[in-house]
């Protein structure tokens, strides 16, 4: 969000479920703000200055409830149990809509610039948990109300694995409530602070950066400029994959999708079974015709100065107007922070940070020997091309994510399969399910027994055994690490 870092979750929030009374449900909390953000207006919202009491007993609301539900299952989440729970609740509802009375609040999760977020579930289905974002419109200025409308509109447009699903929008009295996904594994900023040196290994940086890149590509294809990219707004789903959050600072622009077929030289030499035999390389490189789909809002333009001060692009700081390039600048800052644990232009104060961003001084990389691992040169080159202060020469501003995907830092990534990659193992990462340990133990005992059997038959070193073991273990690898070498996922 613009003024307050909002979180939809806390790690381990489901460990102890304390339910509130079913009747006369009053929740009072005091707002908190973060020091990392840049105010979008001179006056703070009254929501950030005083406590707010919310009553979710619909009989106590001043007017009738108006519900706008989005109950069509998204294709990529068609079999999600949350959709089954929503469908069952709407079938039992008298008017076919979700109302506040159908929800049972569990606890308060976080407070943002526009509203508060609660963990909840449907009263008749405790297994399907959601995040309920509650916005009190009476406490917001007209500008903030336009942000609320923008976020609700954008959420209703999204259909992507790395973006939230809007299950229902409920207008009750002076409250706007958005029922969206709950992410139980916290946000990426909290996870980053748990790492040694506050930095991720390069393989983890590639994983998170690639998924964020795909999410930004989808948003830009819809003509949506995000303008609030930072680790605090990247949540982690139950499976360890990312989910972007907070869309109140977005703005929409026109976009014209184009599809071209480009002829490029293949990087690897091909062998031809008809010219020179199957084992003889063909002289020269082989041309490949590859389709290139580009949907980038290159004509987007805005003068609003909003966002997080450490992630603001130079053209946004100057107030001269900005477009799609602010997201690609923020993406470069994001990759830098994952690698080094800090942002590249951070100063002793917000003013110094903004001055560093606007100055012509070239960005520098810290001398950290522990970060100098293989392929770090490609990561630095990517960051330098993204953090070009002239947006006309910045990587991604012309063709969007297509140009960034082709950078050597992302070599080897199979983009259509990215949602099926296994998340990297990092400190404080996704908690394993209890059944997983037993599965690993059973697999170990299987291999021990197979080894004993092979030793007994003196065929342990035979080719069939090696092929059998490599084929079975292939299911436990993912092709997502440097040099395209698979890494075992224990």
TrEMBL record:
The keyword ATP-binding applies. InterPro entries: Kinase-like_dom_sf, Prot_kinase_dom, Ser/Thr_kinase_AS. One of its GO terms (cellular component) is plasma membrane. It is an enzyme of class 2 (transferase). Belongs to the protein kinase superfamily. AGC Ser/Thr protein kinase family. PANTHER family: FLIPPASE KINASE 1-RELATED. This is non-specific serine/threonine protein kinase. The gene is LOC107959959.
């Amino acid at each position: 969000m613009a003024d307050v870092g909002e979180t939809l979750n806390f790690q381990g929030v489901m460990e102890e479920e304390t339910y509130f009374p079913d009747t006369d449900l009053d929740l009072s909390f005091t707002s908190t703000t973060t020091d990392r953000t840049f105010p979008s207006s001179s006056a703070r919202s009254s929501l950030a200055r005083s406590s707010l009491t919310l009553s979710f007993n619909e009989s106590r609301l001043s007017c009738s409830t108006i519900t706008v539900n989005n109950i069509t299952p998204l294709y990529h989440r068609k079999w999600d149990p949350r959709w089954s729970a929503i469908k069952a609740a709407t079938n039992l509802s008298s008017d076919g809509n979700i109302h506040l009375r159908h929800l049972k609040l569990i606890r308060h999760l976080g407070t943002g610039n526009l509203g508060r977020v609660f963990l909840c579930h449907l009263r008749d289905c405790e297994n399907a948990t959601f995040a309920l974002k509650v916005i009190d419109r009476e406490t917001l200025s007209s500008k903030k109300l336009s942000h609320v409308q923008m976020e609700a509109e954008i959420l209703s447009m999204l259909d992507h694995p790395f973006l939230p699903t809007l299950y229902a929008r409920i207008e009750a009295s002076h409250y706007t409530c958005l029922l969206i996904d709950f992410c139980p594994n916290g946000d990426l900023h909290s996870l980053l602070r748990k790492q040694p040196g506050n930095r991720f290994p390069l393989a983890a940086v590639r994983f998170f950066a690639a998924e964020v890149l795909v999410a930004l590509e989808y948003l830009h294809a819809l003509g949506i400029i995000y303008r609030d990219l930072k680790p605090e707004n990247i949540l982690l789903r139950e499976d360890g994959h990312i989910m972007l959050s907070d869309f109140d600072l977005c703005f929409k622009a026109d976009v014209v999708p184009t599809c071209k077929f480009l002829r490029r030289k293949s990087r690897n030499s091909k062998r031809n079974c008809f010219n020179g035999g199957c084992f003889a390389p063909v002289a020269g490189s082989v041309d490949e015709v590859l389709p290139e789909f580009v949907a980038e809002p290159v004509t987007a333009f805005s003068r609003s100065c909003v966002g997080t001060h450490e992630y603001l692009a130079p053209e946004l700081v100057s107030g001269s107007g900005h477009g799609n390039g602010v997201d690609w600048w923020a993406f470069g800052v994001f990759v830098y922070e994952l690698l080094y644990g800090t942002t590249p232009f951070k100063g002793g104060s917000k003013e110094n940070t903004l001055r560093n961003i606007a100055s012509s001084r070239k960005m520098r990389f810290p001398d950290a020997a522990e970060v100098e691992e293989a392929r770090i040169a490609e990561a630095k080159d990517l960051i330098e091309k993204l953090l070009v202060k002239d947006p006309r020469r910045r990587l991604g501003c012309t063709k969007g994510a297509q140009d960034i995907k082709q950078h050597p830092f992302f070599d080897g990534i199979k983009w259509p399969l990215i949602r099926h990659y296994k998340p990297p193992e990092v400190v404080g990462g996704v908690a394993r399910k209890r059944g997983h340990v037993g599965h690993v133990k059973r697999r170990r005992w299987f291999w021990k027994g197979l080894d004993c059997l092979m030793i007994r038959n003196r065929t342990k070193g035979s080719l069939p055994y090696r092929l059998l073991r490599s084929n079975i273990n292939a299911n436990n690898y993912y092709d997502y690490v440097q040099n395209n070498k698979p890494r075992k996922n224990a």
